[in-house]
Write a structure and sequence with these properties.
The structure is a single chain. By secondary structure, the protein is of the alpha+beta class. It is built from 29 helices and 18 strands. The strands form four sheets. Strands 6, 7, 8, 9, 12, 13, 14, 15, 16, 17 and 18 form an eleven-stranded mixed β-sheet that branches. It has a three-stranded parallel β-sheet with strand order 4-1-5. The chain has a two-stranded antiparallel ribbon with strand order 2-3. The longest helix is centred in the first third of the chain and has 38 residues. The radius of gyration is 37 Å and the shape is elongated. The N terminus and C terminus are likely disordered.
C-alpha cells in the first residue's frame, strides 16, 4: 500500500491530485468506498507502468503499415486561357441548369422554414435525379475523352471544375437571397408591418446561420456526386483506365470543402476534435493544431540519432542554435558599443543575420526530409489503429484463435506488445504536460455544446473545464442568458468537470488514440483542401458568350458536355468492325414450319429480328445485310464521338446477344417439335475506311472485312461431325492448320480448318483494338481437354445507355491438324481469339478475377497473416 502511495505522489501533484480523485485524501486515508479505492489503485498502477515500458519507434512495427495514396492534380499540361493565367473551362449546360434549379429550391426551403410555419417543399426527387444524371454524363464523357487522347488529368480537371462551380453557386445564391431580403425591406412599395417583420426575421436568421447553411447545402449536393463516383463512374474508370478513383474518395468527401473556416470551433467539434489553430506567436498554446503538429514527430526521435535523416536534422538544429546565439551576442555588443565601434559590429550583425537565414532554410530542408522519411506513417490516419490501438490486435488474436491460425496469433500478439509500448511514449508526454486532460475535455464537452449554442462557444466551454481560473468569469458571462429558448443551466458544466476527473486509464487512452486519429485525419484533409484550392484557383469557369466564343476561337476552351449533349457538326470516319453471323438450319426450319401450317415470317420477326433491332439500338450497330441464313452488321467509329470508341467490345456484346436470341428461339422450337438453329459468328476489325454504294437513298457498304468475317464464321462439317462424338466441350471455337501434303490444304485457298459452333471468333487486329479500348485483366485457367493453362482476358465496357457489360476473350492455340490425335492435333505457336460464351468458363474466369482483385498488395496490412 505504501509503495502505491509513493507512486501516486510521484505521478500527481497538488491538492487536486489524481490520488485524491481516485479516492484518497492527502494523508493517504481512504475517503470513498472500496470499489472506488480499487479503481483508483488500478488506474495508478497502470499509470505507473508507463515508467517501465521500453521505448519503441513507429518504423519498428511488426506489421506492415498502411501507405497513403498520393494525390496529385497536374494541370501543367493544359493550355492557358484567354487571360493567359487561368484554364478556361465550360461545364455542361445541363449540369449547370439542373444545379442552379436545385440550389434555388434548397435556399427557398431553408429560408422559408427559418421562422416556422412557412415551410416550402424544397427540391423534388426528380430534381435530385436530374442533377446526379447530369453530373454522371458529364464525367462519363470526360473519361471517354481522356481514354482517347487527353489523359487522366482531363478527368481531374472536370471534377475540380464541377466542385468549384458548386461552391461558387451556393455562395452566390445565398448572397443573392440575402440581397433580395434586404431589397424587400427597403423597397418603395413597403409590405405590411407583419410582412416586414417576417422579412427581417428571415434576413437576421440567414445572416446568423449562413456558414451552417452553406455547409449543410454543400454536404447535400456532394452526396449524390459521391454516389455517382462510387457507382457507374468508378466502374467505367476501372474498365477503361484500370483505376476506380483518379482522386481518392477521401479527397471528394473532405468535410473541409464545405467549411468557410477550417478552424471554426463548431465545425471541428462535429467532424474532428476541438483544437485551436495556434499560429499566434504572442500567446502560443500547447493545445493547438500547430503545436501538436510539431510535437508528434518529435515524440519518436531518439536521444541518439538512429537514421541518417535524424543525424542531418540534429546537425542542422545545432548550427541554427549556434547561429542564433551568435546573432544575439553581436546584437548586445552593438547596443553597448560606442559610436566609433558600431560600424564594424553592425557589419558583423548583418553577416550573422544572413548566416541565420541560411541556417533556417537549411534546417527547414532537413526537417522536411526527416518528416518525409520518419513521419510518413502519419499520412495514412488508419496507421493510428495499427500502431497504437491494442483493441485491434486483441480482435485479430481472437479471430486467429478461432480459426486456429497459430502464426497469425503470434504475429498479432507481437503487434499488441508493440502498440502498448508505442502508445506509452505518447501518453507519458501528454500526462506530464497536462495535454491529456485537455484532450479528454475536448471530447467529453462535445455532447453538451448544443446546450450552450449562441451563449458559450465550444472553445470557452473547453476552457472552463481545463482552466479553473476562468470559471468565475465564464459563469458571470452566461448568467441570465438563454440557450434554445430556455435559461442556461450551468449544472452540466460542473458535472462535466467531475466526469473528466473520474475517467479511467483505459478511457483516457481510448480518447488519446481517437485524438491522434482525428488530428491526423484533419492534417490529411487540410493538405487535400490546399491541393483543391490550388487547382480551383487555376481554373476560370467561362459562361459569358463573348468569352466562350473567344476562347473557342483560340482553341483554349476545355468544354465538358455530357454524353449525347454536344452533337458534332461533322463525322469523320476512323475505322469499322464487321460482324458476320452464319445461321445454319433456317431452310430446314422454314420447310418444317410450312408443313405444320405455321408462319415462318412472323416467327422469325417476333423471335429474332425484332429483338435484334433492340440490341442494335442499345449498342449502336447498323445492318449491312440480313437474310434468313446470314446477318452482317457494322459499327463505325468517328473522330468526334470519343465516348463511342468501343466498337470491338460492343460488337462482342452484340455477338453474345445474338447467340442468346437463337438459344431462346431454340427453346421455343423444342417445345413445338421444330428443328433448331445454329450460329457461327466472325468479328473483324479494320482500320481501313469502308466505301459505300447507294441503292437509291440506301447505302451499301463495301469492305474486305466482310469476306474475312465470313471465313471466321464458318464451320467445317467434318470437324463438326467429329466433335459431336466427344463429350461436351467448354470451347465453341477451334482452329486447325492443315499440314503440307494434306489434300484439304489449299482448297478454296484455305490453309485452316475452322470449328465454330455457336461461337464467336475475333480476329487478331480486333483483339489488339479491344486492348486499346479496355483495361483487360489476364488470368490463366486449365480447361478439361488441355494439358497447359489457357489465357483469358476480362474487361467491362459500356453500351449506349451507360450500362456496363463484361467481355471475356480466350486466347487459344492453333493445332496442327491430325485426325488420329484425341484433340485433332498438337498446339502450335500461332494463336486465335474466341469471345467466351460458355457459362461454366465465364463463372470460372469471374471467380479468378475476384481472387486476383482481393489479393492484398504488399503495401497493405495482411490481416490473415
Amino acid at each position: 500500500m505504501r509503495s502505491t502511495f509513493r507512486i501516486c505522489r510521484f505521478l500527481t501533484k497538488g491538492k487536486n491530485s489524481r490520488c485524491e480523485r481516485a479516492g484518497f485524501s492527502s494523508a493517504g486515508a481512504p475517503t470513498e468506498g472500496k470499489t472506488t479505492v480499487a479503481m483508483g489503485l488500478t488506474n495508478l498502477f497502470r499509470r505507473a507502468l508507463l515508467l517501465f515500458y521500453p521505448r519503441v519507434y513507429p518504423d519498428q512495427s511488426p506489421t506492415a503499415q498502411h501507405s497513403a495514396e498520393p494525390v496529385s492534380i497536374d494541370l501543367a499540361g493544359f493550355v492557358k486561357g484567354i487571360d493567359n493565367v487561368h484554364l478556361d473551362v465550360y461545364l455542361s449546360p445541363q449540369f449547370q441548369r439542373h444545379t442552379k434549379k436545385l440550389i434555388v429550391a434548397m435556399v427557398n426551403q431553408e429560408v422559408g422554414a427559418s421562422i416556422g410555419g412557412n415551410r416550402r417543399s424544397g427540391p423534388t426527387l426528380q430534381q435530385w435525379e436530374d442533377f446526379r444524371n447530369a453530373y454522371t454524363k458529364m464525367i462519363e464523357a470526360a473519361i471517354h475523352r481522356a481514354k482517347a487522347k487527353d489523359g487522366l488529368p482531363l478527368v481531374q480537371l472536370a471534377q475540380v471544375a464541377a466542385i468549384k462551380f458548386l461552391l461558387g453557386q451556393v455562395h452566390s445564391d445565398l448572397d443573392q437571397s440575402r440581397q433580395e431580403l434586404r431589397s424587400g425591406l427597403t423597397s418603395s412599395s413597403s409590405p405590411a408591418e407583419s410582412g416586414r417583420l417576417e422579412l427581417n426575421e428571415q434576413l437576421s436568421w440567414l445572416t446568423r446561420n449562413r456558414a451552417k447553411l452553406k455547409h449543410k447545402m454543400l454536404q447535400q449536393l456532394l452526396t449524390p456526386i459521391l454516389k455517382a463516383e462510387e457507382g457507374a463512374l468508378s466502374e467505367l474508370r476501372h474498365s477503361l483506365m484500370g483505376a476506380r478513383w483518379l482522386l481518392p474518395k477521401e479527397f471528394l468527401t473532405n468535410p473541409l470543402l464545405q467549411a468557410d473556416n477550417p478552424f471554426d470551433e463548431e465545425f471541428l467539434v462535429k467532424h474532428y476534435v476541438l483544437l485551436g489553430q495556434g499560429q499566434s506567436q504572442e500567446s502560443p498554446s500547447p493545445y493547438s493544431y500547430t503545436a501538436v503538429e510539431r510535437l508528434i514527430p518529435y515524440l519518436f526521435r531518439a536521444s541518439t540519432p538512429r537514421h541518417d535523416t535524424e543525424v542531418t536534422l540534429a546537425e542542422a538544429e545545432e548550427r541554427l542554435a549556434k547561429t542564433e546565439r551568435e546573432l544575439v551576442n553581436i546584437t548586445k555588443q552593438v547596443e553597448r558599443a560606442r559610436k566609433s565601434k558600431s560600424d564594424a559590429l553592425t557589419k558583423q550583425q548583418k553577416e550573422a543575420s544572413a548566416r541565420l537565414a541560411a541556417a533556417r532554410a537549411d534546417h527547414d530542408r532537413c526537417r522536411a526530409t526527416y518528416l518525409k522519411a520518419q513521419y510518413g506513417w502519419a499520412d495514412a490516419p488508419a496507421n493510428v489503429d495499427l500502431l497504437f490501438d491494442d483493441g485491434l490486435s486483441t480482435e485479430e488474436i481472437a479471430a486467429a484463435k478461432k480459426s486456429k491460425n497459430a502464426a497469425a496469433r503470434t504475429a498479432w500478439k507481437a503487434q499488441r506488445r508493440f502498440q502498448r509500448r508505442l502508445l506509452a511514449t505518447v501518453e507519458r508526454h501528454f500526462r506530464r504536460t497536462g495535454l491529456l486532460r485537455q484532450v479528454a475535455a475536448a471530447y467529453e464537452s462535445a455532447p453538451i455544446c448544443k446546450n450552450f449554442a449562441g451563449v458559450l462557444p465550444p472553445g470557452e466551454l473547453h476552457q472552463f473545464v481545463v482552466d479553473r481560473t476562468t470559471r468565475k468569469g465564464i459563469l458571470e458571462k452566461i448568467k441570465g442568458k438563454q440557450a434554445l429558448g430556455r435559461p442556461v443551466d450551468t449544472a452540466p458544466l460542473t458535472q462535466l468537470s467531475r466526469r473528466i476527473d473520474g475517467l479511467s486509464c483505459r478511457q483516457e487512452r481510448g480518447l488519446l488514440i481517437k485524438f491522434l486519429k482525428d488530428v491526423l485525419t484533419f492534417r490529411r484533409d487540410l493538405a487535400y483542401l490546399q491541393i483543391m484550392r490550388q487547382a480551383a484557383a487555376a481554373i476560370e469557369l467561362r459562361n459569358d458568350p463573348k468569352d466562350v466564343r473567344l476562347s473557342q476561337a483560340n482553341r483554349t476552351l476545355y468544354e465538358f458536355f455530357g454524353t449525347g449533349e454536344a452533337q458534332a457538326t461533322a463525322q469523320t470516319v476512323l475505322n469499322h468492325v464487321i460482324l458476320k453471323a452464319d445461321i445454319r438450319g433456317s431452310t430446314t426450319m422454314v420447310a418444317e414450319m410450312r408443313k405444320q401450317s405455321l408462319n415462318p415470317a412472323s416467327h422469325f420477326s417476333l423471335n429474332f429480328f425484332d429483338p435484334l433491332n433492340k440490341v442494335l439500338e442499345d449498342y449502336g450497330a447498323s445492318k449491312v445485310f440480313i437474310e434468313g441464313d446470314a446477318v452482317i452488321l457494322s459499327m463505325i467509329e468517328h473522330e468526334e464521338a470519343l465516348e463511342h470508341r468501343f466498337s470491338v467490345a460492343r460488337m462482342c456484346g452484340i455477338g453474345a446477344r445474338l447467340l442468346g436470341l437463337v438459344q431462346a428461339q431454340n427453346a421455343a422450337c423444342r417445345k413445338n417439335g421444330l428443328p433448331e438453329l445454329e450460329l457461327g459468328i466472325g468479328l473483324v476489325y479494320s482500320e481501313e475506311l469502308p466505301t459505300f454504294l447507294f441503292d437509291g437513298n440506301h447505302p451499301i457498304m463495301i469492305s474486305p472485312a466482310i469476306g474475312k468475317a465470313d471465313r471466321l464464321s464458318s464451320c467445317s462439317w467434318m470437324l463438326r461431325k467429329e466433335r459431336a462424338r466427344q463429350k461436351e466441350a467448354l470451347t465453341n471455337v477451334d482452329i486447325y492448320e492443315i499440314p503440307e501434303g494434306d489434300p484439304l490444304r489449299g482448297e478454296k485457298g484455305e490453309v485452316h480448318l475452322r470449328y465454330n459452333l455457336n461461337g464467336i471468333e475475333l480476329d487478331k487486329d480486333g483483339f489488339a483494338k479491344l486492348q486499346s479500348e479496355l483495361t483487360l485483366q489476364e488470368v490463366a485457367l486449365t480447361l478439361p481437354s488441355d494439358e497447359t493453362p489457357t489465357s483469358f482476358f476480362s474487361g467491362r465496357y459500356p453500351d449506349l445507355k451507360g450500362a456496363l457489360h463484361r467481355v471475356v476473350i480466350r486466347r487459344g492455340r492453333i493445332r496442327l491438324f491430325n485426325r488420329q490425335h484425341p484433340q485433332f492435333g498438337v498446339p502450335t505457336a500461332d494463336v486465335f481469339y474466341e469471345v467466351v460464351v460458355n457459362d461454366t468458363v465465364l463463372a470460372q474466369v469471374e471467380e479468378a478475377i475476384k481472387t486476383l482483385e482481393l489479393t492484398p498488395r504488399p503495401d497493405r496490412i495482411n490481416r490473415a497473416a
